[in-house]
């Protein structure tokens, strides 16, 4: 899955001197769920670990580090975790490390630490793109402090990165050690079979009959992420209703300009 970065509605938390949007509270973007995640046997452990962190009030491990290449679904998994936990009345917080680091560089360390103290008041913190802190000592120090404080408070933490903790470049050993304390799991991009399953599920949910040949065509032409598939199915469904015709390959090519 291509990593689509959330552009959340609602109530972000502003860090010192920062523009909004790199922190968000849940629920947010409800299409990100465990049910909509494009799973496969190779992702089973990562998904099961995320579900355990979301559903077990006292999980065996309170931290999860998920690694995988772009398109594997890491952001989707974090958002699904946050949306599920929010249903129980717990308020998770999502943090984009890429944008977070830009903000940290523009403020003092004292102010950044004060802000980090507010972040750990949330019982579940979701940290996306930890590898963006490579070579960023201030960001690494803040994440280290946040990890320790959250652990001391009995909170939960889920993180993503393109590389495993021990493969992070220009990262302080003390932070690498912390990141390996909990569960670690890997995600790989979904294969054609998994993508075809989700396409058919999306079509069924919308009352649409999608021919097998059309589904196979779509997975070869569309970006391989859930949001792109969902938007394509919705567009096809609207066109099918407007024309009062069943879906055909020609209709799909025309409406999606493929």
In short, what is this structure?
It is built from ten helices and six strands, in the order βαβαβααβαβαβαααα. By secondary structure, the chain is α/β, with parallel strands linked by helices. It has a six-stranded mixed sheet with strand order 1-3-4-5-2-6, sandwiched between helices.
- Total domains, how many? 2
- Uncertain regions spanning at least 5 consecutive residues: 1-21
Using DSSP, what is the number of strands? 6
CATH class of the largest domain: Alpha Beta
Strand content: 5-15%
Q: Provide the CATH topology of the largest domain.
A: Rossmann fold
Q: From the coordinates shown, what is the CATH architecture of the largest domain?
A: 3-Layer(aba) Sandwich
CATH superfamily membership of the largest domain, which one?
Answer: P-loop containing nucleotide triphosphate hydrolases
Tally of helical segments: 10
Mean pLDDT: 85
Strand order of the largest sheet: 1-3-4-5-2-6
Envelope shape: elongated
Output the structural class.
alpha/beta
Largest sheet: 6 strands, mixed
Can you write the helix and strand succession as a string?
Answer: EHEHEHHEHEHEHHHH
| Ends apart, CA distance between termini | 19 Å
Radius of gyration: 20 Å
């Amino acid at each position: 899955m291509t990593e689509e970065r959330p552009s959340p509605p609602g109530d972000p938390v502003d860090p010192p001197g920062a523009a909004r949007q790199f922190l968000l509270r849940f629920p947010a973007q409800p299409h990100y769920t465990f049910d909509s995640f494009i799973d496969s046997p190779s992702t089973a452990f990562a998904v099961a670990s995320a579900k355990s962190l979301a559903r077990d009030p006292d999980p065996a491990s309170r931290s999860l580090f998920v690694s995988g290449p772009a398109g594997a679904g890491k952001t989707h998994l974090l958002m699904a975790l946050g949306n599920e936990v929010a249903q129980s009345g717990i308020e998770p917080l999502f943090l984009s490390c890429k944008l977070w680091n830009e903000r940290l560089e523009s403020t003092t360390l004292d102010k950044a630490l004060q802000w980090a103290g507010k972040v750990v008041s949330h019982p579940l913190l979701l940290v996306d793109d930890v590898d963006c802190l490579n070579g960023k000592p201030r960001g690494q120090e803040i994440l280290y402090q946040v990890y320790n404080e959250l652990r001391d408070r009995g909170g939960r933490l889920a993180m993503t990165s393109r590389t495993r903790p021990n493969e992070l470049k220009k990262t302080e050993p003390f932070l690498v050690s912390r990141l390996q304390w909990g569960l670690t799991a890997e995600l790989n991009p979904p294969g054609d079979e998994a993508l075809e399953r989700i396409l058919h599920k999306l079509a069924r949910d919308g009352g649409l009959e999608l021919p097998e040949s059309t589904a196979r065509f779509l997975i070869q032409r569309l970006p391989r992420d859930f949001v792109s598939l969902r938007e394509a199915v919705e567009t096809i469904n609207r066109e099918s209703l407007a024309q009062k015709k069943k879906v055909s390959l020609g209709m799909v090519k025309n409406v999606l300009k493929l």
